[in-house]
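in:
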């Protein structure tokens, strides 16, 4: 059954927090839904929104989606480029953005599901080893100091992102997908930006494939 909710009312704050960083596999798009009866596609001016607690996560994914859309010849604006972390993430904020940029569609992504499994790992101890001879034949004095850090945790994440495209004129959902990724996050690895690149590519390629945008 086709949803009939307004895109303005559908934009809500997602309370789940996640840092989309770490080594990942490519997103697997499991479902695609097209609400063709209310679509006025193709769309040419899209406001891109990620609903998540961390501002940097929002900014990283939004700018990658915008980058992909721009390369396809679509005008797109990231919501985080029009605000900072102090601006409230509420409906009125995004409605004003739509009016300011004259968007004909709004692309909203949020976290649909997140499952994490942690594994405790031991840290490698560091030791200082000193030895020196004594006054006694073949007898040595030995000092050993060992420094141990607390145990750390490695995580395996299963992440599902739900993305919907809203038509501004129809005030309705015209398209939706769910993309799923598995990725690992280790205690000693720095942030891996590739998860943003892969998710953005999955979203925009399906928009193009389903005719919501055109080159």
């Amino acid at each position: 059954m086709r949803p009939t909710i307004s895109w303005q009312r559908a934009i809500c704050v997602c309370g789940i927090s996640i840092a989309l960083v770490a080594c990942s596999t490519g997103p697997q798009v499991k479902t695609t839904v097209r609400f063709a009866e209310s679509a006025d596609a193709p769309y040419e001016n899209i406001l891109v929104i990620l609903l998540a607690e961390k501002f940097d996560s929002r900014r990283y994914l939004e700018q990658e989606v915008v980058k992909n859309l721009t390369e396809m010849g679509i005008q797109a604006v990231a919501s985080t480029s029009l605000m900072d972390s102090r601006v409230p993430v509420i409906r009125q904020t995004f409605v004003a953005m739509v009016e300011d940029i004259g968007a004909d569609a709004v692309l909203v992504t949020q976290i649909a599901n997140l499952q994490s499994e942690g594994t405790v790992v031991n840290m490698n101890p560091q030791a200082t080893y000193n030895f020196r001879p004594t006054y006694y034949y073949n007898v040595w004095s030995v000092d050993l100091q060992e420094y141990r850090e607390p145990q750390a945790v490695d995580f395996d994440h299963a992440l599902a992102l739900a993305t919907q495209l809203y038509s501004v004129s129809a005030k309705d959902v015209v398209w939706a997908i769910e993309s799923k990724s598995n990725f690992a996050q280790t205690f000693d690895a720095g942030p891996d930006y590739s998860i943003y690149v892969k998710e953005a590519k999955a979203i925009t390629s399906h928009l193009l494939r389903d005719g919501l945008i055109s080159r």
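note: The two ends are 30 Å apart (CA to CA).
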